[in-house]
Amino acid sequence: MKDLKYYYDKAIKNHFALGAFNFCGLETLQGIVNACKNLNSPAIIAVSESALNYMGNYTIALANIAKQETDGLFLHLDHGKSFDICKKAIELGFDSVMIDGSDLSIEENIELTKQVCDYAHSRGILVEGELGQIKGIEDDISKQKDIYTNPDAALYFVDKAKVDSLAISIGTSHGAYKFSGEQTLRFDILDNIEKRLGTFPLVLHGASTINKNCIDIINNNGGNIVNANGVPENLLQIAAREHNIVKINTDSDLRIGITAMVRKILAESKDLIDPRKYLGSGREKVQNIVEEKIKNILYSANQL
Ligand code: G3H
Ligand code: 13P
Ligand code: ZN
Which residues pair with 167 in a beta bridge? Predict the structure, then answer.
């Protein structure tokens, strides 16, 4: 059966990565699904705790319809912070969960992650853990050398917590402002993690590229986003094709894409009041962004 484990194993063997795309409503999800359907591609559709709260009971209904539209979609809880939210997601029917104990001490992180693994594995659900810290806009990476994943600690963590995949920190961060200096990743750390873990599935968060054209559209239509930057596409290609990164997470690029289209269309058509016109355009942009990522970064059809 082509479950998520099948794709993780295949991603390691054939040197590709699955896209994990966050959604928070109908249009984002439709954009992702249309792209996957068009390219006959598997993907992870990810929901954060706050997106789950936002969409409420619609989450599962939408995801189930999405799965009927195209094969190879997996519903994943992104950055679950407690056992209870992971349990809730599993009870709701998620295919995999992330327990993010990265703010805790390693022993506390192991204890929490192991608890989720015990519960999830007995129900056939995969668990992603996180070690090292993948920061957001408010955090200054340069002042915190110890936020990168320590390779020896990664081996210890995976062995004790029994996770199915591990989110690692090698210089990416969440949001639209990722680098204050050079846009680069610590592939040396990734090499060392891989030396310790062998062919274990690894996950890259904070992987949006932050499209300059979309930022310009936002700023030319009333927005004010200054000094935004993302992970260069070629570095993501290296992560997907030359390393054991099996899952690459994108949220901000989709948000920026929708925002750009909505701002542009509303600015151009001052009398427009039909949400289908501007949200529909956002939906098309999401589809386009996901298709480009699948083709340029994640995989080619013959790798699947
Ligand atoms: O990794 C974090 C995601 O971008 C989710 O963010 O909690 O605002 O939905 P959110
Ligand atoms: P971005 O903010 O770079 O899109 O990262 C998304 C992410 O890691 C979701 O877990
Ligand atoms: Zn993340």
Answer: 130, 203
Cβ of 96 below 6 Å from ligand 2? no
Q: Is the pTM of this model over 0.85?
A: yes
Residue 164's contacts (CB-CB under 8 Å, 6 or more residues apart) are 5, 8, 96, 117, 126, 127, 128, 201
Tell me which of 3, 9, 71, 78 is the catalytic residue. 78
- Report the CATH fold assignment for 4-212+228-252+283-303: TIM Barrel (3.20.20)
**Residue 136: both structure tokens together:** 């957001």
pLDDT tens digits for range 7-63: 999 999 999 999 999 999 999 999 999 999 999 999 999 999 999 999 999 999 999
CB distance 304 to 41 below 8 Å:
yes
Residue nearest to atom 7 of ligand 1 (CA): 50
Four-residue CA torsion sign, 143, 147, 152, 156: positive
Chain centroid to CA 35: how far? 16
- Known catalytic membership, residue 78: yes
Tell me which ligand sits closest to the C-alpha of residue 51: 1
| H/E element, 77 | strand 73-80
* Residue 211 backbone zone (phi > 0: left; psi -120 to 50: alpha; other: beta): beta
pLDDT in tens, 56-96: 999 999 999 999 999 999 999 999 999 999 999 999 999 99
Which two three-digit tokens encode residue 158? 């995976």
Cα radius of gyration (the chain): 19
- Domain residue limits, the chain: 4-212+228-252+283-303
